[in-house]
Design goal:
This protein is of the alpha+beta class. Helices cover about 20% and strands about 40% of the residues. The chain is globular, with a radius of gyration of 22 Å. It has 2 helices and 9 strands. The N terminus is likely disordered.
């Protein structure tokens, strides 16, 4: 019996602290469901954002996304020849509002460039500020994701 009494204060502290932090737990869970902005990496002499050795585009402070303003981005893709055969379609999803738009479409990819197996230039305009998940599909098959923040 004395053993249980010794653990009672610890149990009470745990129960009270868990109850008061429900909002913190909910915020953490909500943030876990949101995609994080992609890492940058170097390919050739260029800084890119995306998934290294999979998909990315040339990116710098000068090319940072601004809501409603179009800018040019050179997409680079790495993969087998059969994976890179077909059209490229990029669908963007705003992480807070779930707004979904077709960001960019092309009929086919160009050949190797800057260390990548394929590339394609694009002009992209994202309509609103926040974090956008850009899912790329080649030949109708999911290929990769680049997550960006729009100012």
């Amino acid at each position: 019996m004395k053993r249980w009494l010794a653990f009672l204060p610890v149990l009470l502290i745990l129960l009270t602290s868990c109850n008061g932090n429900d909002h913190v737990t909910k915020q953490v869970v909500q943030k876990e469901n949101q995609a994080e902005v992609s890492n940058t990496f170097k390919s050739g002499s260029y800084k890119m954002i995306g998934e290294e050795e999979r998909i990315g585009f040339i990116y710098s402070d000068a090319s940072a996304f601004k809501a409603g303003e179009p800018n040019k981005y050179m997409w680079h893709l790495w993969g087998d020849e059969d994976e890179l055969d077909g059209s490229l379609k990029v669908i963007g999803t705003h992480q807070e509002t779930n707004e979904e738009i077709v960001v960019f479409e092309s009929d086919e990819l160009a050949g190797p460039h800057n260390g990548a197996d394929a590339h394609i230039p694009s002009t992209i305009q994202l309509p609103s500020a926040g974090v956008w998940e850009l899912n790329a599909y080649v030949g109708g098959e999911f290929f990769g994701t680049v997550v960006v923040e729009v100012m």
